[in-house]
Amino acid sequence: MVVRKMSRYEELKEKTYKLGELSPGSIQERWLTCGNPDCKCAKGEKHGPYYYFAYPDRESGKTKQVSISEDVVSNLKSRIRNYEKFREKLWELVEIEVEMRKG
């Protein structure tokens, strides 16, 4: 049992290091109104989409966001997926390590 856990532990470590670039956060798509009463958006046809990257601020713990261009959305989505995979594998590593230390 310990050998199997150790093998899974090493496998997870290797996969974690191969994930590539990581970005914690999410992408938000927004459609906005400009406030001009003569604009098409005043009639319901909003401007957009505009993209924002929301991420946790290390110091405050609050969520911050920045506007991003459409051409970086695809790459950023990939980095966010990598980060989510990383977190899953990291927690599995922690669980295996705790089990190995127990017995």
From TrEMBL:
Residues 9-76 form the DUF6788 domain. InterPro entries: DUF6788. This is DUF6788 domain-containing protein.
